[in-house]
Structure formats: C-alpha cells, structure tokens
Write a structure and sequence with these properties.
The structure is a single chain. The protein is α/β, with parallel strands linked by helices. The protein folds into two domains: 132 residues, Rossmann fold, CATH 3.40.50.2000; 178 residues, 3-Layer(aba) Sandwich (Rossmann fold). The chain is built from twelve helices and eleven strands. The strands form three sheets. A five-stranded parallel β-sheet has the order 3-2-1-4-5, sandwiched between helices. Strands 6-7-8 form a three-stranded parallel β-sheet, sandwiched between helices. Strands 9-10-11 form a three-stranded parallel β-sheet, with helices on one face. Helix 4 links the parallel strand 4 and strand 5.
Length: 334
C-alpha cells in the first residue's frame, strides 16, 4: 500500500502531523508513506524514519498534482483544510480521509463570540482521520528528529549558559501573537534565569533591545546590587544565529520554554519540555496548544474582543492590545 499525508501549511502543522505519519507506518503492514510539505518544512522529513518519501508543494498547483499523480497512491490522508488540498484530493484517484474543517465554528467564535468549537486538540482531530482505516493513535506524542549536523553543543554558547538555560522564542507569524517589547523585557525579568532568545534574523533587532536592557556592564557596584536583589536574568540573543533544527536542539536541552502561539509550540511538546504559553489574539480552543507535555497558559480572559481573528494582524484592530498588555505573569518556574 502507498499512502500520502498532506501535512498542512507551516512547520508547526508538519510537527503536529507526525503522530498520523507514525501511526500509518507502524500499524499498516508494508505501507510506503509519503508526505506533502510546504517547501520551508521539507527539512523535517530528512531524519524521520516513518517517512519514505517527501514532496514539496509546488508554486504551481498543476505541477504538484502531476508529481503526485505519478505515485498512484492507494490512500490520501488530508490534514490541511484549504481549498487547494481539497481539490487535490478530488483529483487524485485514491481513497481519501480528510481533516474536518471547523471554519464556520471559528467564524462564529471570532465574529459573534458564539462558541461551538470542539474542545479537542488539533492532533487528536488529525488522528480521527485514521479511524476509517481501522487505525488508532498511540500515546507517544509528537516526533522531532534532529540531524547530527544540527545538534548544538553547549560549548557553542557563552559559559554561563552551559550550566542550563530557559528558551524564549520571540517570533510569531503575526504581531498580535507577540508581546510588545517592553512586556518581553518584563517577562524576562520575571523568569530570572539565563535566557536564550530564539527567532529568525527578522527578530534580531528585538532581541538586541531585550539583551541591551539586561547588559550588566563592568561595574562592580552594579553587579553587587543585582546580587542583593537576587536578579539572575542573563540574556543571549540567538535570533538569526541558528537554523530551525539547531533552535530545536537548544529547546531539547533547555530547562523550560516560554513561547507565543507559533511553530515552536509543537517542537517543545515533542521534547516533553515544560511550556509557558503566552496567548494573545488567539485562543486555546483553536486547538494548537502544547500537546502531551506539562504546560501553563498565560492569557487574559477578561478581554471581550478576544479572539479577534483565527490567525493574526500586524497591529491590534482596537488599538489597545489588551489581550497581551493585560496578561499577568503569574507562574512558578522550578
């Protein structure tokens, strides 16, 4: 049997889809499992032992269809809900099981604040697509396989971080999913541990602002004052310095992860890290929260306009950004 898994539109979607891929490979005898990935997530298939062949979504829909048609799949499991994936499943001559779209339920929640959403994690919804095949998901959670070449040695880091650190990915696909910079600084001060900031080169400038705030300089008096106040926050701005696999390697070696609603949520979940998730314009009922790992959600449930969107905006539509500004940093980090 030959099976295709359409894995979604982002790196996070692909990591969330790994239990489906694993279940197909392990529970169906002699099954060749293929994955269809967005181009920027194709690297995730390199070390995954449950994927026999990976395909990248081509800019041309027709070219994607032509490539996949040559494979003659017996089964297609569609974990995406966009129109292109739906059309693709119609055009491929194979038995298809698709993730149920909750677009209208999300619209009701966003537009009218009427809640008909299922309180079910996205991964568990994905696994439900395997029921018609007689398959059931296991209890092993998410997979993330780091190539040997991308495993980060702690010796690459400043000496103070070699004894342990917290990771704080400061990137997000939309600004309304991120704390304002002043609140990021406030959070780092509250964490009171050595912190590695992760993100792309686009986040480098923000990381430099945060790093500069905690720069201690050479003053002995200043150092003594910090010690008296029990201030232990030391920041290393790693934004733009590591590729995604290398950032995953740092997450794997961390004490804990503070993150927004982004692609690092499933990565931290895959390594069973304790996650402190900061949710702004989105909500947990959209199903993309940490999976099968210990986590604490930091959010403001008193903001009436939340959620304002399923995805996000460049800036708060109301102008006040209370969903992030009103979050109480009430957590315990052992």
């Amino acid at each position: 049997m030959k099976a295709l898994v359409i894995c979604g539109n982002s790196i996070g979607d692909v990591v969330f889809s790994t239990p489906v891929i694993r279940t197909l490979k392990v529970q169906l005898d002699e099954t060749e499992v293929h994955g269809l990935f967005p181009p920027n997530a194709l690297f995730l298939a390199e070390e995954n032992p449950y994927i026999d062949k990976a395909h990248a979504i081509d800019a041309s829909f027709l070219e994607t269809w032509r490539t996949l048609s040559k494979e003659k799949f017996d089964v297609v499991v569609n974990l995406a809900t966009n129109w292109k994936s739906r059309l693709l499943t119609l055009l491929l001559p194979a038995k298809t099981n698709s993730l149920r779209s909750d677009r209208w339920r999300r619209w009701l929640m966003v537009s009218l604040k009427i809640n008909h959403l299922d309180n079910v994690h996205l991964v568990d919804k994905m696994l439900q697509t395997l029921k018609p095949l007689g398959l059931k998901g296991d209890e092993l959670g998410l997979d993330y396989f780091i190539p040997e070449k991308d495993k980060v040695s702690l010796e690459w880091l400043p000496e103070v971080f070699q004894k342990g650190f917290v990771v704080f990915p400061i990137s997000a696909p939309y600004n309304t999913r991120k704390l304002p910079v002043d609140r990021m600084i406030e959070l780092c001060d509250k964490i009171n541990r050595p912190i590695i900031l992760l993100g792309s080169s686009d986040d480098k400038a923000t990381g430099q602002v945060i790093n500069a705030f905690f720069e201690r300089g050479l003053s002995v008096v200043w150092e003594k004052g910090l010690l008296e106040l029990n201030k232990k926050t030391i920041v290393y701005n790693a934004c733009g310095k590591f590729n995604f696999n290398q950032m995953a390697s740092l997450i794997k070696q961390s004490w804990a992860v503070f993150t927004f609603d982004n692609d690092f949520v499933p990565v931290a979940s895959a390594f069973r890290k304790e996650v402190f998730a900061l949710w702004g314009n989105t909500i947990l009922l959209f199903g993309r929260y940490p999976y099968r790992t210990k986590f604490t959600v930091l959010e403001s449930n008193s903001v009436a306009c939340r959620p304002c969107t399923v995805n996000g905006f460049d800036k708060c539509p109301k102008g006040h950004f209370k969903c992030m500004r009103d979050i109480m940093f009430d957590f315990y980090l052992s």
